[in-house]
From TrEMBL:
Tree of life domain: Bacteria
Top-rank EC class of the record's enzyme: transferase
Entry's family note: Belongs to the RlmJ family.
Keywords: Methyltransferase, RNA-binding, rRNA processing, S-adenosyl-L-methionine, Transferase
The protein's name in its UniProt record: Ribosomal RNA large subunit methyltransferase J
Organism: Enterovibrio coralii
Length: 279
């Protein structure tokens, strides 16, 4: 089933949280000169035109990146993420929003590399177009988990895997747990960043409890909500579950999330940073 198109949702509050965490992890990896790999299992199109009819139809970006990208009180830690967005846009008009591949690629150094996987027949050509000729990027039109399994452990021994499935089907929550189980056996020291939407809270519990049972240490959960949990409202919150997070990430997000909530959902939102499993 490949009906999900991220172009309807690009730049929404969930993207903002996901890409802030992604950028903080990559910036942390850059503190050492040694090369690392950025692996994106569900890449999407690479960039999104917010004037496109799909983005315009929902207008979700207006309640996400549209609220923060040109503010003058942006926390210093998210400056690299904001700069990625501004580099795609000229002047004060917000037209393009970067998907996770573009955010990641924009932050890499010359010695680093990226692996992008996308199975959707409409999005993969757009991904190819976005990064064609880029020698630091390898793109694959195949199942993201199969490519991840084939790529681990990476030659660099350092890096981050972003897992961001569409969650169209119920089994995809368990698929994430199974993918982590296999991946950690191959590459225990890597950082794994799992994005999740809160539609039914029980599905998020399935992920966290499944990871706990695997005996993995150092699992951090980060969440921003725009409304209370409700099975009738669609996605009310989203977050990231990070395995082997950089040591500064917990405090960085504790500093960033109150500001982010105050801008995006001051009256109805919530946020938290919790250890699912401590070190």
């Amino acid at each position: 089933m490949l009906s999900y198109r991220h172009s309807f949702h690009a730049g929404n509050h969930a993207d903002v949280v996901k890409h802030i965490v992604q950028s903080l992890i990559i910036e942390s990896l850059k503190q050492k000169d040694k090369a690392f790999v950025y692996h994106d299992t569900h890449s999407g199109a690479g960039r999104y035109d917010l004037s496109d009819e799909r983005a315009a139809k929902t207008g979700e970006y207006k309640e996400g990146i549209g609220l923060i990208w040109d503010r003058d009180d942006i926390p210093e830690d998210i400056a690299p993420y904001i700069q990625t967005i501004k580099s795609l846009n000229q002047g004060n008009k917000l037209r393009y929003y970067p998907g996770s591949p573009r955010v990641g690629r924009s932050l890499l150094r010359e010695q680093d590399r990226a692996i992008f996987t996308e199975l959707h027949p409409s999005d993969f050509p757009l991904l190819l177009q976005e990064f064609r000729g880029d020698r630091q990027v390898k793109m694959h039109k195949e199942d993201g988990y199969a490519r991840l399994k084939a790529s681990l452990p990476p030659k660099e021994r350092r890096g981050v895997v972003l897992i961001d499935p569409p969650y169209e089907l119920k089994h995809e929550y368990q698929d994430v747990v199974d993918a982590i189980d296999e991946s950690v056996k191959r590459w225990a020291t890597g950082t794994y960043a799992i994005w999740y939407p809160v539609v039914y809270r029980k599905n998020i519990d399935l992920i966290t409890k499944g990871l706990e049972k695997q005996g993995i240490r150092k699992i951090l959960q980060i969440e921003l909500g725009v409304a209370p949990d409700s099975e009738e409202r669609g996605m009310t919150a989203s977050g990231m579950i990070v395995i082997n997070p950089p040591w500064k990430l917990e405090q960085q997000m504790k500093d960033i999330l109150p500001w982010l909530q105050s801008v995006i959902a001051p009256d109805t939102g919530h946020h938290f940073v919790n250890w699912v499993v401590p070190e």
